[in-house]
Amino acid sequence: MAMEGHGYIPYWLRMVFAQVLVAGVLLPTAAPAQTGYYLTPSLSVAEVYDDNVFYTPSPRTHDFLTRTSPGLKAGYQSAPLTVEGSYAFDSEIYSQHSELTTPQVRQRGLIELKATPDQVLTLSVPVSYFQTRTPTELNLQTGLAVGRVRAERYTTNPALIYRYDPLTTAKGDYTFTKDLLAGFTTIDSHIGNLALDHRLSSRDTVGPGYVGRRFEFSGFPGVTSHAFTLGWSHELTALTSFTLRGGPRLTEGTIERLPEASASIRHALKGGELSLSYASTLTTVFGLATLLKAQSITGTATTELLPKLKLSAGPAIYWVSSEPFKATVYVMNLEASYQLTKILALQASYQFLLQQGGPLGPHVEILHDIFLIRLTVTYPARVD
Fold first, then answer.
1. SS3 for 25?
2. 36, 113, 41, 39: which is closest to 76 by C-alpha?
3. Helical H runs in the chain?
4. Theoretical Cys-Cys bridge with 235: which of 25, 203, 221, 304, CB 3.0 to 4.6 Å?
5. Cα separation of the two ends of the chain
6. Strands 249-251 and 220-235
7. Sign of the C-alpha dihedral, residues 332, 153, 146, 73?
8. Structural domains in the chain, sorted by start
């Protein structure tokens, strides 16, 4: 793995690190109050090695980059009402491929309202915006690689939880997502979820569910799907539980061979957690005017190895299929974080992706490795 061409940290970056270190040592901190207004500015600076900056099959193009990410979160918090807004962006400077240097390669914005008008009803309305030139990171249910192109995602997800009685809870939410990829198809996704959970015993909860989906592709016919499910959650021990949910799925009036399904098992650790999940669902991917069937197995392991030192691992396998293609994607995320002070954290991560098959052909392989080390300062404060 060649790493020439970036054997030093620029002077301006060393100065930023120095200032952030001083801030972490000298500035006091104040956590957001339980009730009242709060403001949380943040700044992170990262050095990244990317061995496939264009997300292409071999030959791959590697480069080092410096990523600076300022952010701001503000809101009001109280028992019946919480309002929060946040915004952050990433600026990237490339060592060798200066044409990729971008002041705002990535932007993230969120406004969320949560309300509890009484003890049995909880409402939430988040609205988010995500703009990026690396849309692979938005293909959360498939892991499929997409080349470097400007992509935008607008999402809103109003939801409610109603506790009918101490044993019965009704849940419902609606998600609207608009995905735009420069020069490609625009995708509108409408997804509604309904579920009723009833506790049969101190360890068992069961209930029916429904998922309705409508996908609209600009210039192409839309697709409608309905799934009717039954769920069961069981607490094996005080630390271990599992959840199963599944049922038939009808797409455009035809029952699919592969049902709607999900399963997960979780085990709590002292200072961490182990989990393993399976999902079978329908989804879309940026740039393709077609519906995809996606199956996935994902795992998570988190632990606090030492005081203030946290480790996490997240392996995943995705099987994706549609009429034009099939693909298998292997993903591994490793991360370590150390809280240097109350407001200063040091993080290191490694991301691995191997895609076999996909839109470019059944025998095409895309390999991608990203190494990152990041310093983040976060300064929460109450606003009187």
1. helix
2. 36
3. 11-26
4. 203
5. 53
6. antiparallel
7. negative
8. 11-383 (2.40.170)
